[in-house]
Amino acid sequence: MNTLTLCVSILHFMIIALGTTSKQKVGYVKKVLRRLGVSAELKLVQTSSGVAEQPLTSTETKRGAINRAKRALKLIPNADFGLGVEVGYASLTGGGYEMFCWVALVNKQKQVLQQSYSFALPDFHVAILKSGRYLGDHVKKYHAGTKNVFKHRVGEIIRNREPFITNALENGLLSFLNS
Predict the structure, then answer these.
(1) Fold of the CATH domain 3-177
(2) Is 60 exceeded by the pLDDT of residue 7?
(3) How far, in Å, CA of 31 to CA of 163, rounded?
(4) In the prediction, which pLDDT does 12 show?
(5) Helices (runs of H) and strands (runs of E) counted in the chain
């Protein structure tokens, strides 16, 4: 048994106040919890991020995750911690944009913030962000009708956001639960 398995196996059953009802995000949280061997009951709470629907800075995205976690914990006070997940974008030098995710894990004793790795978006997506349109409404058009397998996969990753969300969640949960 390795150290990580031992650490996770001695944890008690937890209640997590999750600051979203998004089926996609809930699914990713469940997937990461299973992968880490963590038994938990998720209490889903519709919360406001308190930031733009499409955050365009790392600071704003982080603030959205913190707000969701704190608001969820306030609504489910018997939870072991509140969890907030927020995906956002930030401008890059040269005019492009990158995509990433912030997660916040909060209880009365501590707060852990974790950002995922980032990904420089293709020009198609950058143009949508620069025009002020909501990226989620247009991402399916990126690979519509393409026979380019790589372009199709990149479009799916951007649309589903799974690698960003699960990366931040896994690292955030490991830090939070191990401290």
Answers:
(1) Maf protein (3.90.950)
(2) no
(3) 12
(4) 54
(5) 6, 6
